[in-house]
Amino acid sequence: MTPVVLIAEELAPAALDVLAHDYDVRHVDGTDRAALLAGVAEADALIVRSATRVDAEVLTAGSGLRVVARAGVGLDNVDVPAATARGVLVVNAPTSNIVSAAEQAIALLLAVARHTATASAALKAGRWQRSRHVGVEVQGKTVGVVGLGRIGVLFAQRMASFGTRLIAYDPYIQPARAAQLGVRLVGLEELLRESDFISIHLPRTPETVGLLGEKELALVKPGVRIVNAARGGLIDEAALAAALTEGRVAGAGLDVFVTEPTTESPLFAFDNVVATPHLGASTAEAQDKAGLSVARSVKLALDGEFVPDA
Ligand code: NAD
Ligand code: MLT
Question: Does the record carry NAD as a key word (predicted)?
Answer without folding.
Answer: yes
